[in-house]
Every structure is written in C-alpha cells, then in structure tokens.
Amino acid sequence: MAEEPTKRLRPAEVEMILRRAAELNARRWQRDDNGTPSVSPEVLVQVAAAAGIPEQDVRRAMWDLASEKTAEPHTLAWKLYGPARLRAVREVERPPQRTREHLESLLRLEQGLKLRRKTESSSLWDSGDMLGAVRRALDFSGHRALLKTQLVELRVEGLDEGRCDANLTADVSNQRGEYLSLGGIIGVTLAVMFVLAGAQSPLFLLGVIPALAAPALAFKLVYHKACADIRRSLEDLLDAAEEGPPQQDEEPPDRGDRPPGQIRGLRPIPRFAPQQRENE
Predict the structure, then answer these.
(1) What pTM did the predictor assign?
(2) I need a surface site. Which of 90, 106, 173, 262 has the fewest CB within 10 A?
C-alpha cells in the first residue's frame, strides 16, 4: 500500500478524498450481505468538523438531501426504477442576478430549452412544443441531455458578500414512465410467447419469469444511463456558472491620427484600363 501524503490538504482536495472514500465504502457494503451501518446526524457533524467543514454547511447539505428525498412520493415506478427528480446545488461566488442570467442563457442556447414561467427567484424550462419533442428524439450527440426531461427548474437565491446559491432540478418522470411502459409491454409479449409454447411443452413455462424480468431490467439500466447524463449536464451548467460569463471583447487598438475609413499600409488599386495598341 502506498504511503499516505504528509502535506496538509486544501478544502477542494478534502472534498475529493471524502467523496472517493464514501464511494468505496458504499460499494463494499453493497457487496456485503450484512446490514448496512447507519450514522446519526450528530456524529456526522463531528466527523465533518474534524475535517474542517463547518456545522452549518453539514446541516445545509443534510437538509438539501432530505428535501430531495421527500419531494417525490414513493410510487411503484419509484420502487422499480428509482427517483425521477434529479437535483444539483452549488454555492457560486458571484452575484445572484448575473448568475441567473448566465444560467438562463445556457439553458436556452446550449440545451435548447424554452422558458415557460418565470418569477423573481425561479424559472421553469421544458423542451417546448412538438418541434422540441422531435429535436429530443433526433438528438444522438448527448450534448443536450436536458431535452429529454419533462421540466427543469432553476432557482437562484442570494447570499451574503456577493454570493448566491444556484439550484437546478430536473424532472424525468416522462422518461421513467416511457421506459417502464416499454419494459412491461415487451416483457408481457415475450411471456405470452413462452406460455403458448408451454402448451406444447411445459418446459417452456420456465422462461415466463425471465421473459418478464429481462426487459424491465434492461430498460432500468437505460434509464439510469439517461439519469447519469442529465446529472452530468446539470453539474456542467453549475461549473459554467462558477466560471462566469465570457469576458467582453477588449477595446480596439488606438487608431492614431488616421481618419475614419483609412487603412494604414494599403496601396491604392490601379484603375483597370485596356492597354492601347502601339502604332506600328
């Protein structure tokens, strides 16, 4: 095992290391048959304090996670395919008004979404009319993953010292419903074929349950892949918000004493005239 670094870590490095450690721990407990351990909020606050993370930040993160879980009812689709509301939150070191305008511009120009409703602190976006649905179906590049969502909500709340809290929430219940329906239709069709074949040979009846489960599992994987693309797009938008809008073009260089319309170093073009034939 490699030696651990002895230098002190910056907050960004602490975040990366803790995130990676949490992923490794989650994978280990998923492979283990025993019960997954639980951690109380107070213990989590103490552990975060040891890593230099303030208590109010930990409380805010736990509140965001709890609000995201309770925002959607636990229906049958949620139990089979997972949540349909994807959320990304970021604290941006920029004024709220400029951050909101920048994110709205990115949603409109880069993602191709249409504004449906706008308030003082939030705005709602979707793919638009029938033309938007066609563009969503024909988009194979993956650069406009938010076109596949039913709704995208942007909320920007101002904080102190010129900072703001940017919140992007994507509703993908339409995609979940489509994949769930397709998995059910294909599964039932395959199961009926095995049932009909089982009338001739009972051995085919053993394939009824796999025929029902295989399409549902396949479309579940496709749905999770679509959710991962949408989450990545939301994070990319917040990354762009942190970087800020592009700087305006610099002022043109000094023209000197040249009058308007004159270009320095340009020779006049000689007027075209046919050469006169010399007299013999």
Answers:
(1) 0.62
(2) 262
